[in-house]
Amino acid sequence: MSSETISALNETDCEYTVTHSKAKAFYETYERKEELQHQTHFCPGCGHGIVHKMLARAIDELGIQNKTILVGPVGCSVFTYYYFDVGNIQAAHGRAPAVATGVRRSRPESIVIGYQGDGDLSAIGAAEILHAANRGENITIVFVNNAIYSMTGGQVAPTTLLGQKSSTTPNGRSAATEGYPLHVSELLATLEAPVYIERVGLGNNKQIAQATRAVRRAVENQVRGLGFSLIEVLSPCPTIWKMQPVDAQHWVRDVMEKTFPLGVFCDRTKEAQPRQLPEAAPELSEIPKILGVDSESLPEGNAHVLGHRAKELDLRVRVAGFGGQGVLLMGEVLAEAGLDAGLEVSWLPSYGPEMRSGTSNCHVRLSRQPIDSPLVTQPNVLVAMNEPSLRKFYANVPSGGWIVYNGETFPADCEREGVHVLACEFTQIANELGNARASNMLMLGALLEITGVLPEASVDAALRRLVKNPRFVEVNERALARGRELYKESIEGVAHTI
Amino acid sequence: MHKQLMKGNEAIVRSAILAGCRGFYGYPITPASEITEAAALYMPQVGGVFLQAESEVAAINMIYGAASAGVRTMTASSGPGISLMQEGISYLAGAELPCVIADITRGGPGLGSIAAEQSDYHQVVKCGGHGNYRTIVLAPHSAQEMADLTALAFELADRYRNPVLLLADGFIGQMMEPVEFPQTAVAPQLPEWATAGTAESRNNLINSLYLDSDALEAHVRHLEAKYLEAERVETRAEECDTDDAEIVLVGYGIVARILKAVAAEARESGLKVGVLRPITLYPFPKEHFQRLAKRAQVFVVVEMSTGQMVEDVRLAVNGARPVEFLSRVGGNVPSHEEVLNFVRKLAQGGAPVMEPEEEQVAHV
Q1: How many Å apart are CA B63 and CA B59, to the nearest integer?
Q2: N or C, fewer C-beta in 10 Å, chain B?
Q3: In the predicted model, is pLDDT for residue B280 greater than 80?
């Protein structure tokens, strides 16, 4: 384990300094842009250009240009990749925090910054930002809030102020119909994981200076490996607000701020511990063993014991009962034993919701030949662990087949020409053995004796592979043996064919 | 013994890791949850990432992020979750990002049921997201193929820089069969186009936005050329006893298993029946149909849907031969006996009539 590299940071170097040179994190000219490659696409007075500049400067100052991956949003700032000379990913509307999560977790040494507008983040992407923040993803989110959907022409956003007109609230936003402005910073600050959340504004130069410091700090937190930071920037949109740029800037300060007060809502940077990098990956050669698929750790099996016995073997078993009776395990032991004996096998469960009182059944096939259909519609052995299961499936057992039934008396109306029956109070006998839940193994013992094919070594091996607790292995072994006896006792001398 | 008994769902994750997958982002849903659970167990042990997302929408976008960073990555879900992922799949295809998505199909529409259906064919094979894109779709029909086709899916995803889907039904996911895995693991590679947070990759851009109409047309034509290339070289299908087949049974997934049993029994009674099983649902193996149509009298498509793949079969056969259709839905499976009766009636020249059996012998 090694802690994340912390860049050498000079704490006194955090102050905003006036400079007229373009940040290195910007391209010299914007060649990804079709036309006018020396200027941005933003309208006069738009806040995005200012926020872009803060972010580019923070990347420069922290020396992270090569490590930075910027995840752009859908909206006016969709073209972050025109301007930022860093790795760029364009994300679907609102999904930047999820995309950033995937990037950052895949490349723990990278710096991942999500840039989102208020429609993107607080409406369509509300779930993604909430959960990324709650997981404390080590990412930085720059959230530009201009209280409106701008690129699509000025529709209401969750952040639109009460009374503010938009193209979809022509009479102004009403709390009764559109609800109240969403306070994203306050909302996320109720979570325990984020390390830094601040709302800043672009209402005047002083606010811009503070915003610059905040953006840099939010990126720096990530460089230090501290966790999730978000900076909400109240930003003017003169075009959609239908204002002169200077008036729009005033509106941020004089109007927006009243609904969205500036300030730090969460700061855990002092107590936050740098995150640990994931453990180093193992050697490639170790991976099959880790996955439990290396041939060395697989058992030899007992195919040699089975030898050439039962050349035509084609066992089709249906096991059915209540959930909790061990229906699936019984089928699994049978299939596992078949595989151990070198046979082709399949095990197909009925699967259902994790509910009480459900019924359960499985299809098991063991064959010398490759198995075509794993579905057993005409079982040559039906194991019915209760009467409803018997009634559901008995009619499909063909002549010459067997029904192993858990009940003292076999219902007369279920008797069929040529179908053999072994009926016993298996549950009661299992109780006498010390565990009522071993009735499945009693019935399996009977089935194994009826079919008479599988080597006992294979059954033992299967049981030990599937039942980890030695105490249960012991009782199950006794149950299997007793099941075999029960068959012998009751069917002495009766010929059978499978 | 080099095989072990394993659910198809569990085989997917092991195979994915052996194929170099190091990122799994998912959301639980029956009958696909074992895939997510196995990933949660194994990914951290191999230096990979596992994360249970807040939704399928988030999961597919985490995949988008991980794929952007150049990691072999995957997710798994079932119909309702795949519906939610369609947005992300369109973006992945648009931004040319490779990834693997397993759909272990359940019943629909809406909440439907958790029992197996094949009713996601349209949304997966025809692509439920927006825009001119395709996804390569592989249809395993055994636990072994869940492993093998997962490995192939990663290869194809990287080769075409495009999402690849595994379309399996709940039975193939839940069924245990012996599975054998390769004994060597593929080393994760960093593709040169990825945004990996390095000096070399700094100028890379992952994007699907082209506002200029000529630029977008060029991009869409570029994608189209990839799909045409895949149609030319990647179609896969299995044929059983088709050389002299007069009746060709067509199905994928669990249905194909039933069809193999039916064909074997029909052969025993002297009927010349074969099975054609598409393994790639896109690209669809049209040439197999066109070749078999020269001899076969009729194609019989069997699906656990009201008729989705059958549309592609009809397009492939293009009127050369009749295409009959047998369907079960709701979690019911066309039983061996049901299909056999259908085939026998067809062979006798009578128009087969679908008669759902009273006893749903193969229900779950």
Answers
A1: 6
A2: N
A3: yes
Percent of chain B at pLDDT exceeding 70? 96
Which residues of chain A lie closer than 8 angstroms to B55, CB-CB?
127
Contacts of B285 (CB under 8 A, 6+ apart): B235, B236, B237, B276, B278, B279, B316
> What is the pLDDT confidence band of residue A355, given thresholds at 50, 70 and 90?
low
Interface contact A95-B22, CB threshold 8 A: no
Q: For residues A495 and B13, give the distance between their C-alpha atoms in angstroms, rounded to a whole number.
A: 47
| Residue B364 pLDDT | 38
Report the alpha-carbon distance of residue A17 to residue A344 in Å, rounded: 75
pLDDT digits (tens, 9 = 90+) for B140-152: 999 999 999 999 9
The answer on pLDDT for A370 being more than 50 is yes
Reported in sequence order, the residue ranges of B81-152 that DSSP labels E, i.e. its strands, are: 99-107, 113-116, 136-138
- Please give the pLDDT value at position A17: 54
The pLDDT tens digits for A267-320 are 999 999 988 877 789 999 999 999 999 988 788 888 888 776 667 789 999 999
8 Å CB contact of B205 and A293:
no
User: Looking at domain A284-490, what is its CATH homologous superfamily?
Assistant: Pyruvate-ferredoxin oxidoreductase, PFOR, domain III (3.40.920.10)
Partner B contacted by A90 (CB < 8 A): yes
Structure tokens at B155: 């290869």
Specify the CATH class of A3-267 in words.
Answer: alpha beta
| Torsion (CA) B356, B357, B362, B364 in degrees, nearest 10 | 70
Going along chain B from its start, the domains and CATH numbers come out as 4-233 (3.40.50.970), 237-363 (3.40.50.920)
How do residues B87-132 score in pLDDT, each as one tens digit?
A: 999 999 999 999 999 999 999 999 999 999 999 999 999 999 999 9
This complex has an ipTM of: 0.95
Per residue in A64-73, pLDDT tens?
999 999 999 9
d(CA B207, CA A79): 10
Contacts of A89 in chain B (CB under 8 A): 64-65, 68, 195, 205-207
Looking at chain A, the whole-number percentage of residues with pLDDT higher than 70 is 92
Q: What is the C-alpha to C-alpha distance for residues B266 and B254, in angstroms, rounded to an integer?
A: 19
Query: Buried b / exposed e across B42-59, counting CB within 10 Å, b at 16+?
Result: bbebbebbbbebbbbbbb
Average pLDDT of the residues in B225-239: 98
What residue ranges do the domains of chain A occupy? Answer: 3-267, 284-490
B251 to each of A374, B258, B307, how far by Cα in Å? 15, 9, 11
pLDDT for the residue A148: 96
Q: How do A359-367 and A344-349 pair as beta strands?
A: antiparallel
Contacts of A331 in chain B (CB under 8 A): none
Tokens 């193996």 sit at which residue?
B285
Which member of B3, B22, B261 has the closest CB to residue A372?
Answer: B261
Residue by residue, DSSP assigns B37-72 as HHHHHHTGGGT-EEEE-SSHHHHHHHHHHHHHTT--
